[in-house]
Amino acid sequence: MTTFASGTDTLTRDALTVLQPGFTGTTAPDWLLRRLGEGLASVGLFGRNIASPDQLSALTAQLRAERDDVLVAIDEEGGDVTRLEVRTGSSFPGNHALGAVDDVALTEAVALELGRRLAACGVNLNWAPSADVNSNPSNPVIGVRSFGADTDLVARHTAAYVTGLQAAGVAACTKHFPGHGDTAVDSHHALPRIDADLSVLQSRELAPFRAAIAAGSRAVMSAHILVPALDPDRPATLSRRILTGLLREELGYEGLIVTDGMEMQAISATYGIERGSVLAIAAGADAICVGGGLADDDTVRRLRDALVSAVRAGELAEERLADAANRVRALAEWTAAAAAVSRSHTNGSNGSNASNGSDTPAVTVGASFPGGPAGSDSTVDVGLIAARRALTVTRSGAFTPLTEAPYVAALTPVANIAVGDETPWGVAAELARLLPGTETGSFTGEDAGSSALAAAGSRPVVAVVRDEHRHPWMVAALDTLLAARPDSVVVEMGVPQSAPRGALHIATHGAARVCGQAAAEVIAGE
Asked: Quick one: 526 exposed, middle or buried, by C-beta within 10 A (0-12, 13-18, 19+)?
């Protein structure tokens, strides 16, 4: 049982309890451990905090030695957004690939295995899945993080993901309420606006969240977006109409409401993180996510003091803050109980996932992250199964699998902040395992096509793109490449909106490492 430091009053403890801060380093700093002793109840982990499974397990054990019921949260969507495998690429394809397969049993199996890996390392809250309907093909921040553009598909896979993840004892945090799919602006940089009317929002954006709530999602994350049909004045994270009126009262949601990162420009550049945090709790949020960019004790102190001062000034009801803190504690209790149930089920089973009538095979994962091929002929990786099934392969004429080491030309866009630029992507590493001598280069801008051709020389060319339809320079570069080398292979690792072209075109529906592996197998005829 956690014992709090003496001298910390209830109001201050509650203010600390609703914060979900991050930190730097691979061990917990002294200030974070001290704050846990004073009432902090949650910690957020990012790629910078993770070096290996053993290190992560030691880190979470260090946190629990200070507070045994601490919520350890992470942004592990699988696919393009991975923290567990930030330096290697994910062993699981992301949502768009799972939506392309459209087998809910497979989605549940992937989420279950991902949840098991998180739980084994001591993580008990995952800021996933994304329930956004990617209705705007130009969306710069959602894209392959979404199950797709079809509302019903997104809804059923969101529910399956929540079910699988929570069966592993890890709480799901379904995001980004009320739906970030119809935006053309990244909320990390500015405040997006969705001008859909109420009937569209009800039938499209909200349907996946209804499915998540019905599936028992223990947490929901708010979006930093302005939706005038719901509230013309304040973004969803700060809107009582949206968080309390819509999510709590209309949709009947009783779980934890978590904000998206408060240091994102949509909030920090308009309201500031202190004022924004006060408004968010007042609107109905229960937990303040901060730490992707601001990750120090000063940030925690500033937010704690802002909440306490707002209560004392009458700007925030003390009962609302207490209610938020109690919801955080309730989730901590649920994770403890769910983890115990999950462990008992695991110990009493053979570790396989039944397909329940689907054509998804029963699987056991043979490789622990950072991930690789299955460990034996009798063990199959559910992530690789999903990545293989997600491929859309289009051949132009008689394509012959490559036997000569190719040149891989990666036409590389700027990665959005959610994905990050430190996670490798593409097919070069996987092709090099199958075709030793494979070389690669990264190309960007108006001269990318001609530069890639010069680098490739006479070798076979594999051109890798990511959301070709969103980048005119990428379209032009591919035009140049294919005009000179029509026998080239094209691999689209984003949302496949452009018509297939090249001698072989492979749409992977995501840029996870395992998606590259599946594509490489086709290119090399494995």
From this structure: exposed
Q: Supply the DSSP symbol for 204.
A: I
Among 99, 133, 129, smallest CA distance to 212 is for 129
Q: Answer whether the bond into residue 370 is a cis peptide, omega within 30°.
A: yes
- In this model, does residue 367 exceed pLDDT 90? no
CA–CA dist 492, 507 (Å, integer): 5
Residue 178: strand, helix, or coil: coil
Q: Any catalytic annotation for residue 260?
A: yes
Options 188, 224, 505, 509, the catalytic residue:
188
Tokens of 156: 């059923």
Task: Please pick, among 260, 286, 381, 467, the residue that the annotation labels catalytic.
Answer: 260
Indicate if the alpha-carbon torsion angle 511, 516, 518, 523 is positive or negative: positive
What mean pLDDT do residues 88-109 have?
97
Measured CA to CA, the distance from residue 517 to residue 91 in angstroms comes to 10
The yes-or-no answer on residue 96 being catalytic is no
Other beta carbons less than 10 A from residue 339's beta carbon = 16
User: What is the average per-residue pLDDT within 198-212?
Assistant: 97
The backbone torsions φ and ψ at residue 489, rounded to the nearest 5 degrees and listed phi first, read: -95, 135
- Note the pLDDT tens digit of each residue in 418-465: 777 789 999 999 999 999 999 999 999 989 999 999 999 999 999 999
Query: Exposed, middle or buried, 54 (CB in 10 Å: 0-12/13-18/19+)?
Result: exposed
Tell which residue, 154, 174, 90, 184, has the closest CA to residue 419: 90
Q: Is 62 in contact with 68 (CB distance < 8 Å)?
A: no
- On whether the CB atoms of residues 388 and 92 are closer than 8 A, the answer is no
